[in-house]
Structure formats: structure tokens, C-alpha cells
Amino acid sequence: MYLRTMSAANYRSLRSIRMDLGSVNLFVGANGAGKSNLYRALQLVKAAAEGRLTHLVAEEGGIYSAFWSGGTRKQEKARIRLSAEIVDENTGIVYGYSVETGYKQAEPSAGFLHEAQIKTEELTVDTGRRPVVTMRRKGAHITARGESGRMEDYPEQALTSETALFLLGDAGRYPEISTLRHIIGQWRFYHGFRSDAGSPLRLPCLPITAPMLDEDGANIAAVFATIAHTRQDTIDLDRAVYDAFSGAALSIPVPEEYASFGLVLPEFPKRVFQPRELSDGQIRFLALAAALLSYRRPPFIALNEPEASLHPDMLPALAAMIANASADCQVWVVTHSQALADAISERCGVRAKTVIRRDGATWIEGMTLTGRIDDEE
């Protein structure tokens, strides 16, 4: 499964943008150009699948903060619009999902005035002939294609804070909706990692098999243990650590009461440095290694400024891990570092997309209105 296109309108600095995507999607640009808003727009799509879209908007300051602050056309509805096309490469089936969210009517008794309201949703499935609508939502009313193949009313009225993708994906009666919800739910967004003394990266974790890294990195030790003792193949992980830390090696004991790990540095070959002793750059690089080299990679990994706190000497090893991951998952990288962008471009054979501001809105240099980059091969 891969994300073929994404689009966003009226979200923060994204006035209206649509992009075709590839296996590696690399974005560079100046501060304030809106690179992170592209990243966050996709996070909102995942949040819709998890039933947390309005929650995530609230964490950003509410619908009034999230909405496009520039000028709008007369009679245009004040709505944030998000959509994505996801393709199953094995079957050729294309899933198209869109969601619109907007303001609550400002009535004295309305309550939750800053909460985003889900206005519309639609899911289409294209098996090769034409897209067929399998779910449509307007306000609280939802219709979906049932077992008979016909559109039928969903028996419950949705709250304005609930997404139909989440509600029906858990109902057990709508396989296409459940499939898409499951696919999007596996996406992983890594927006930096905490590196303070209380960071989950520095703490032992429960000894439970972990096929992929949690978004906060809390199961990092279990991810390493799963690679070492379940897959029993640490070649890629060992190479990444060796290259990043000039000959260092990971120590990954068999989990007992807790899963743990340490780092053996070449200048101190008899000493295992525990996570609490590692520098910010060291612990963050190891978290990126766990994300990119896990036992089972998610179908989509997004990294927002992964170079933060890393020594420049670590960037080639990071680029190599991204190239490794792109062999079987789609990768999205937002970076300020031209050195990292160049290294990824060289290893993955892709050109960085330069994010700019055009008429106050975020845009991609050289992109046409259809979402294609003019100089793409």
C-alpha cells in the first residue's frame, strides 16, 4: 500500500495544495515556509482514521488557530479540506478518502466553540473501472455500502467530533472502510524525540515483542530486542551504529523483567553505556534507527527534522537508513539540513522538493496545479 496523492486546503499556511508522491518524499526550505504544515496535514488524516482528528486540532489551539488566516473568496465555506489516495500495489485498488472540518455555529448554548466540527466525509474505491462511493457523510448523517452492495443509512447519528472512518471502520460490517482505517492507522510520524532525563527513550520498557517503534519511542528497547532475538539479524542495525558512532556497537541483552539496551564505545570496549548516559544526539539517532530498521516497517514513515541534535558526521548513516527503509515502505522527510538532503538524494535517487511561500501560502517550487513537479523525471 502506498500514498499516491495528498491534498490540503485552508489548513494553516496551506491555502490549496495537491501533491503526487513517490517512495521517498524529501522536503527542504527556509523557516516559516510551511514544511511542517504539510507534515501535520497528513497527521490529521491519520487522526481521522483513529477518531482523534478534532482532538489533534484542539491540541494545535482549536479550529480558529488551524484555519487558513489569509483571504478567502466570497461565498466560500470556512472549511479545512484534507484528502488522500492510497493504492494497493498487489490488487491495483485505489482508495480515496476526503474529510472536511469547520466551525461550530456561534450560538450562546452551542458549547465547545473552538472544537472542529466534522462536516463531510467520503470514501471511494476504484477497482479499475471507475471510483465507487462506499461511504458518504454529511453532518451527522452517514450512508455506507452494506453487504447487499447498496448504500444504506448507518443506524447511529455521529457526533460532530467523530469521524465516520473511525466509527464504521470498527463496526465489522464495512470491509473497505475497515481496510483503509487499518492501513492509515499503521502510518508513523516521528516529530523529534524527547531526550531529557525523563525521556521514554532512556527508560527500560516492558518485555513485549515490538515489530515497530511507537511514535514517542517508548518501546525502543523492545524494538531492538525484537530485531536481535526474534529476527536474529542485526546486520543493518550494527552497520548504522558503527558508522554513526565511529566503531561503536549496541548491547542488547535478552529481555527479562524489562527490555533494555546499551552502547559500547570503541574507546571504552569493556563498558556498556546505559541510555541515561548517552548524549542527546546519540539517543535520538538510536531512536531513528529503531524507527527505520524495525522488525516490521510501517507502510509510511514521516520524519520531521530528523537531523535535530545530530552531529554532522551522523548524517550519512541516517541517509543510509532512510534508503534502506525505502525498499519496503514509503518515506517522507522534512529537513532544514542541505547536507542531509544531498545525502538522501544521492542514496535514493530523488530530488528534494523546495518548499516556498507564494502569495503568502505554502507551495512547492516548480509544482503545477495538478500536483506534478515540472522537472521530475
The rounded Rg comes to 22 Å
Q: Unreliable segments (pLDDT under 50, ≥5 consecutive)?
A: none
Considering DSSP H and I runs of 4 or more, what fraction of the residues is helical? Answer: 25-40%
End-to-end CA span? 22 Å
- Class derived from helix and strand content: alpha+beta
Question: Largest sheet at a glance?
Answer: 8 strands, antiparallel
Number of helices: 10
Strand content: 25-35%
Number of strands: 16
Q: How do the SSEs run, as a string of H and E?
A: EEEHHHEEEEEEHHEHHEEHEHEHEE
Overall mean confidence score, pLDDT: 92
Neighbour order of strands in the largest sheet: 2-1-4-5-6-7-8-9
Tertiary shape = globular
Search tags:
AAA family ATPase; six-stranded mixed beta sheet; eight-stranded antiparallel beta sheet; 10 helices; 26% strand; 377 residues; alpha+beta; ATPase_AAA_core
Task: Please specify the SSE layout and strand pairing.
Blueprint (H helix, E strand, L loop, with lengths): L1 E10 L2 E7 L3 E6 L5 H15 L3 H7 L3 H4 L12 E9 L6 E9 L14 E10 L4 E8 L2 E5 L5 E3 L10 H6 L5 H11 L2 E3 L29 H12 L3 H10 L4 E3 L10 E3 L15 H13 L7 E5 L10 H11 L4 E6 L2 H11 L4 E6 L2 E4 L13
Parallel strand pairs: 3-14, 3-15, 10-13, 13-14
Antiparallel strand pairs: 1-2, 1-4, 4-5, 5-6, 6-7, 7-8, 8-9, 11-12, 15-16
Helix pairs in contact: 1-2, 1-5, 7-8, 7-9, 8-9, 9-10
Describe it.
The chain is about 25% helix and about 25% strand. With about 375 residues, the protein is an alpha+beta fold. The strands form 3 sheets. It has an 8-stranded antiparallel sheet, covered by helices on one side. A hairpin with a 2-residue loop joins strand 1 and strand 2 (about 15-20). Helix 1 runs antiparallel to helix 2. About 40% of the residues are buried.
